[in-house]
Design brief:
Chain lengths: 294, 292
């Protein structure tokens, strides 16, 4: 009888509860999200505890980490910890906005093209390929230079608008193979509409794939934002991890042995993207019942 | 009940649909309530395409398919009366959800007002009807069940809907011999309750087991159609004879099919119109491909 009760309308809720059960017992997922959460919290609350503006020149240049300057100072005496926590904030923001927008557009285009097929697919695929071959960085350069983009949000928006094509292609291909499965026909014969089939039948089969798409776009957005910051087209009033890395290179931190300048931002970018990957492997194990039993 | 008139299906293939492939051409037949009609043909003969068109899963290029006089159309109302079961039970279940979700989907769509316990009882009854032990199959993932169990779950699902027509597309080809006969007997029982079945298969012996009428399909066209006894007892079209000769038999070697030189139904050649050879027994010209 216990098994029978799962056929009741609460079944969907049961599926969620079951996923949660496996989620809180998955080490990879907890580790990955833990690392991301720590850095996110640091970026959110860190700036509240530093009274120095991140770009203000200080009296003690080039000093290694100390009690006063936790992460040391730059050639100009700027406090690296202050830069780091502010930089984390804008890096997370640009990653989330850019990656989020690109993921949403990529999924919409990918699912529509893959599910509809035919002429719709041809048109969307053509559009995707056109955007794919546009040199995104060059377009971003022109757009940023002419529109004078100086805020993290707008930078994220433009990155998102140019990053989606490969995600759309990947999702389209995956949707193609899933839509011809017979469970899609069975859902259709259970009275389900197209939208419901895509969200309830096809998407759950590739949930970890979709999350991975977002992670890659998130990481990609951070790197593109760093490149833009590097050539001076990033937000002028803010500081980002990419900008810190760039300044460190520009002022020969490596040659001068100032490891404390480039290690924190480099390690943070690596940690965020790496931790999201680990979390994704964990998510796959949570959502895929076949992997759970391993 | 179900009626097909000159149904044709052309697929557009190649870049921008530049070329076309005719999968089904001018197929007409009927299925009455309580009648089992078997549709026999080799791989690529278009039999599954016909099944999918009847189920509204694929658009028709030309011709009409009607169920109770109304053209088939995707939608809850239509699927309440007509359901299909396909060849591969593993592909018919969404692997990330439990197998009994197919019942929950039926309840959500068709019986939202039935109280949970009553629905659970109905599901149990349907499972017993297909000789499954509810405790063994409910709450399991598809990969934890066997092909035969999954296939019978799908039949149980169709039973819950009180359907009148079942399109059974190669439903026994993935089953082992003993499960196969159980499923066939189950269909026979459902048939006696008034269910019409379109039994699509490439296996002639299974086709004869249940069906009153047999339709032999070749390259998208009907070559012979009639009461099962007549089609199998006195096959007129050389292709049907070839098919029958190819059925494996114990203690008897295969004989080579006799080549076709003459055709009694050549009059209709080239037009694709079937000639009536006996009461309800129709046959196509054997030299269709060569006569112009």
């Amino acid at each position: 009888m216990t098994a029978l009760q799962e056929v009741t309308p609460q079944e969907r809720e049961g599926v969620r509860r079951e996923a949660l059960y496996f989620a809180v017992r998955n080490g990879k997922l907890l580790t990955g999200f833990g690392v991301v959460a720590v850095l996110l919290v640091l970026g959110l609350v860190g700036p509240l505890f530093t009274d120095v503006p991140p770009n203000q020149y200080g009296p003690r240049p080039m000093s290694p980490p100390s009690a006063e300057h936790w992460f040391g100072t730059t050639t100009f005496g700027q406090d690296i910890f202050a830069q780091f926590v502010h930089g984390l904030r804008s890096t997370f923001a640009v990653g989330a906005i850019g990656g989020g927008i690109a993921a949403v557009i990529g999924m919409l285009v990918g699912f529509t093209a893959g599910y509809r097929g035919g002429v719709v697919d041809e048109v969307l695929n053509m559009l995707t390929n056109v955007v794919l071959v546009i040199p995104a960085l060059a377009v971003l350069l022109i757009v940023n230079a002419y529109l004078g983009i100086r805020s993290v949000a707008v930078q994220g928006l433009f990155i998102g608008l140019t990053q989606w094509p490969w995600a759309a292609r990947a999702i389209r291909a995956q949707t193609f193979t899933l839509r011809s499965r017979e469970f899609v026909d069975l859902a259709r014969m259970s009275g389900a509409g197209t939208w419901r089939i895509i969200t309830r039948e096809i998407a759950p089969n590739m949930s970890s794939y979709l999350f991975m798409t977002f992670i890659l776009l998130f990481g990609g957005s951070i790197l593109i934002a760093s490149s833009l910051d590097f050539i001076g087209l990033g937000p002028t009033d803010a500081v980002s991890l990419g900008l810190m890395l760039q300044n460190a290179t520009q002022w020969s931190a490596l040659q001068l042995g100032m490891w404390w300048w480039f290690v924190p931002p480099g390690a943070a970018i690596t940690a965020v993207v790496g931790a999201l990957y680990v979390a994704n492997v964990g998510l796959d194990e949570v959502f895929n019942p076949k992997l759970r039993e391993l | 009940m179900l009626r097909l008139d000159d149904v044709t299906k052309r697929f557009r293939i190649g870049a921008l649909g530049g070329r076309s492939l005719t999968a089904v051409s001018d197929v007409s037949f009927e299925v009455a309530p309580g009648e089992v009609v078997s549709l026999i043909g080799e791989s690529g003969s278009g039999k599954s395409t016909i099944g999918r068109m009847i189920l509204g899963l694929q658009p028709i290029t030309s011709g009409t398919i009607t169920f109770d006089g109304r053209p088939v159309r995707q939608g809850k109302e239509f699927y309440r009366g007509v359901q299909g079961i396909f060849q591969d039970p593993f592909s018919s279940f969404n692997p990330v959800f439990k197998a009994d979700r197919v019942f929950a989907m039926v309840k959500d769509a068709y019986f939202p007002s039935v109280p949970g316990p009553e629905w659970a009882a109905r599901v149990e009854d349907a499972l017993r009807d297909v000789r499954l032990n509810p405790g063994q199959v409910l709450g399991k993932y598809p990969h934890q069940l066997s092909g035969g169990q999954l296939q019978r779950l799908l039949i149980a699902r169709a039973l819950l809907l009180e359907i009148r027509l079942l399109v059974a597309d190669e439903i026994t080809s993935m089953l082992d011999a003993s499960t196969r006969i159980e499923v066939l007997n189950l269909l026979a029982e459902l048939k006696s309750r008034g269910l019409g079945v379109l039994y699509i298969t490439h296996d002639l012996s299974l086709g004869t087991y249940l069906a009153e009428r047999t339709i032999v399909l070749r390259r998208g066209s009907v070559v012979e159609m009639g009461p099962t006894g007549q089609v199998f007892g006195g096959p007129l079209h050389p292709y049907t004879r070839e098919l029958l000769a190819a059925v494996p038999r114990l203690h008897q070697p295969w004989d080579d099919a006799t080549p076709v030189d003459t055709c009694a139904y050549h009059l209709n050649g080239g037009t694709g119109v079937l000639a009536e050879a006996g009461s309800g027994h129709f046959v196509a010209c054997a030299r269709l491909s060569t006569c112009q």
